[in-house]
Amino acid sequence: MIIYVFVAALIVSLITKRIKYVVERTYRYIYLFPIPFILQLLPYFRGVLMPLSFAMLITLLILNKHIPGFKFMAIGTLLNSFVMMIFGWKMPALKSLVEQMGLRVGVRHTVVDKFDIKLLLGDWIPVYLPWNESFIISIGDIFVYVGIFMFMLGISSMEKTSEKI
Predict the structure, then answer these.
(1) Would residue 149 count as lying in a domain?
(2) What does the alpha-carbon distance between residue 55 and residue 39 come to, in Å, rounded to a whole number?
(3) How many C-beta neighbours within 10 Å does residue 2 have?
(4) What DSSP string describes 63-104?
(5) How far is CA 140 from each of CA 21, 26, 77, 113, rounded to the nearest angstrom?
């Protein structure tokens, strides 16, 4: 689903001509950003690579906290990594929703039979897209998606948004 959010934010930023904010920023260690995502794709040594990947990603997001949206992305990533740590570095997903929505569970997820406090930060929020595609997302994902829009549109805070409109 993150691809859809990124593409939507990119299209809106192009239409509103706010894409310039993405290009004009001063990034710290931008060349390192692909590494955490590559580490998460590797099927080996997940018990070591997943924590390393999340630690690196959170560090890079915090080092770039001066960029709009990166604080939200850091919070979302921290929430997701916390719940994944509890579940053996897999994102828990509510079984009843997985079955109801007909979703496949990949290597990055684990299915949980019932909702309890540990699943609060896991995947339990259903999202249905108009083109007959559905997902289950987490609270952390929502923070990440809001951060992506803030980043792509150059919005530095919610208070300043109303002033710009």
Answers:
(1) yes
(2) 11
(3) 12
(4) HTTTSTTHHHHHHHHHHHHHHHHHTTSSEEEEHHHHHHHT--
(5) 25, 26, 6, 21
Q: Which domain holds residue 62?
A: 2-22+49-156
Q: Which two tokens stand for residue 150?
A: 């803030």
Report how far residue 150's alpha carbon sits from residue 88's, in angstroms, rounded to the nearest whole number. Answer: 31
pTM, full prediction: 0.86
pLDDT in tens, the chain (165 residues): 788 898 999 999 899 988 888 888 899 999 999 999 999 888 888 889 999 999 999 999 999 999 999 999 999 999 999 999 999 999 999 999 999 998 888 878 899 998 888 899 999 999 999 998 899 999 999 999 999 999 998 887 654 544 555
| 3 state SS for 4-69 | HHHHHHHHHHHHCCCCHHHHHCCCCCHHHCHHHHHHHHCCCCHHHHHHHHHHHHHHHHHHCCCCCC
Which residues, listed in sequence order, are joined to residue 127 by a DSSP beta bridge?
135
64 Cβ neighbours under 8 A, 6+ residues apart: 27, 28, 29, 30, 70
Domain count across the chain: 1
3-state secondary structure of 128: strand
Residue 132 located in a structural domain:
yes
